Amino acid sequence: MTAPLEALRAAVGAEHVLVDADLTASYETDWTGRFSGRAACVVRPSETAQVSAVLTACREAGVPVVVQGGNTGLVGGATPAGGEVLLSLTRLASLGPVDVAAGQVTAGAGVTLAALQQHARSAGLDFGVDFAARDSATVGGLVATNAGGIRVLRYGSMRAQLLGAEAVLADGSVLSRMAGLQKDGTGYDLVSLLCGSEGTLGVVTAARLRLVPRLGARCVALLVLPGVSAAVALLPGLRARLPSLSAAELMFPAGVELVRDYAGLAAPFAEQHPAYLLLECIDRTDPTDALVEAVSEVAGLVDATVASDSAGQRALWAYREQHTEAIGAAGVPVKLDVSVPTGRLPELCDRLNGVISGVAPAALPIVFGHVNEGNLHVNVLGAGDLAEAVTEAVLELVAELSGSISSEHGVGRAKAAWLPLSRSAAEIAAMRAIKGALDPAGLLNPGVLLATS
Going by C-beta distance under 8 Å and a sequence separation of 6 or more, which residues neighbour residue 286? Predict the structure, then answer.
C-alpha cells in the first residue's frame, strides 16, 4: 500500500511529513534496540484536527498507522513493522493552566512527564506518576500503556490519574470527554477503555489529569534484607505506620553491581547482600524520624542507611534508577515486565533464575521491581538466539503463579503471542469485538496487543 503523501502534507505541512531515511531513522527503532522497521513516512501533527485529517487520509487509502509518543516503550508497541505511516505525537505539547481548585490540568499527548511535573509544581501541586524516563516519556504514551512507575504504592497507575481524554478514532472522528468530572454515571467509561489500549482503539491527543498535593519534605532509606520474603512481610506494617510512604523498590546484588560498574558508584554497604529495599517517604513535614523509627523495628533487618538531604537521596536513588541505562549499556536484553499476587513474589524470585538458566545457561538475569505491586522487571542479558525461549519460560512461570505477563509496560508486539497466558479466551474475544467495532479495518497499531492471525 502507498501512503497518501499529498493528503498528509496538506494535513500537517510538507515539512512535517518525513520520508528521507536519515530523518525517519530515529523513529523506527525502539528504546531497547530490539524492535525496528521501516515506516512509509513519519507524520508530525501539532493539533487534534491534524490527527483527524491524517487518520481520515490513511483510512481512505487503507494504510495502517503506528502511533508513537516519546519512543520510550519497551515492547515494540510504537515501532513500525514495515510500511505503516508512523504518527508521532511529540508536537502536541500544549499545557493548559493548572486548575488549583479542582486539582486538575489538561495536557497534550506530546507533553513529557518532566514538563508536566514542572508545570504542576509551579502551581503548588504535583503529578502522581513518576519514573526514570520522565524526560522523554509523554502523556499520550503514559495513557496508552496505563503507565505505573515508582509511586503506584501511593497514588495508583495512570488510569487513576485520568479524568478525561480527547482521542481520534480510526475513521477520523473525534471523541472528547474533557470536563474532568469526578463523578459521571452516564454509561460506558470510554476514557478508561482507551487507557491501556496501546493505540489500538484510538489516538489519544490530550488528557485531563488529576493532580496531587506537592509535598516538599522527603527521606530515603536503603535497607538490607535476608531475602524477598522479608521485604514482602514488612511492607504492610510500614504502610500502616508511614502514611507518607511513596515508594518501595526491590533490588538484587547483580543489578546493583551492574549499576555501580556503569555509573562509577561506591558500594552502598561493605558487603553484598541477598536483597535491597529502597524506601521513600514524602510529606509536608520532615518524615525522617518516623521512617527511622519504623525501620529500626523491622524484623530481620541486616543493615540500613538513611538520607534526609537531597544529595544523599539522589545517591541512593541512583542505584535503582540507573538500572535501565546500565542494562542497555551492557547489551540488548530480553526485557520482561511481570507481576504476581504480592504473596507469591518470593516464590517468583526464588524460581526465576533457575527457569532462565534452564533455557539459557550463559544468560545473566538482572531483576528489580516494585514490592507493593508484586511487579518485577526481568532483564536477561546474553540470551542471544534463545531470547524467545527465555521469554516463554518466564511468562509461563508467571502464569503458573496467577500473574500478568505485563504489569506496566504494555503488551506491544513483543508479548502479543502470549496474551492467552493472562487473558481467557472469552476476554480476548471481547477485546477483539471492541477493536472490531472501533477500528473495523484494523489500521491502528496492527499486531500490537492482539496478535494478527
Answer: 217, 219, 308
Place of cell 486548575: 99
The residue ranges of every structural domain in the chain are: 5-88, 104-213, 217-323, 332-426
Contact assessment for residue 210 and residue 161, using Cβ atoms and an 8 Å cutoff: yes
Topology given in CATH for the domain delimited by 5-88? 3.30.43
**Cell numbers found for residue 31:** 528504546
- Residue 305: how many CB atoms within 10 A of its CB? 14
Please state the separation of Cα 327 from the chain's center in Å.
Answer: 17
Q: What is the pLDDT of residue 1?
A: 60
- Bridge partners (DSSP) listed for residue 291: none
**Rounded average pLDDT per 10-residue block, the chain, 453 residues:** 90 97 94 88 98 98 97 92 96 98 98 98 97 94 95 96 98 97 94 97 98 96 97 95 97 98 96 96 96 92 95 97 94 94 97 97 97 96 96 98 95 94 97 97 96 79
- What nine digits make up the cell of 365? 538475569
The model scores a pTM over 0.90: yes
> Closest Cα to residue 44, out of 71, 21, 15, 64?
15
Beta bridge partners of 29: 36
Count the Cβ atoms, other than its own, within 10 Å of residue 322.
Answer: 19
Backbone angles phi, psi at 375, to 5 degrees: -110, 120
Per the listing, cell 535501565 goes with: 324
Amino acid at 194: L
What is the CATH architecture assignment of 217-323?
Answer: 2-Layer Sandwich (3.30)
Please tell us whether the domain made up of 104-213 is placed in CATH 3.40.50.720.
no
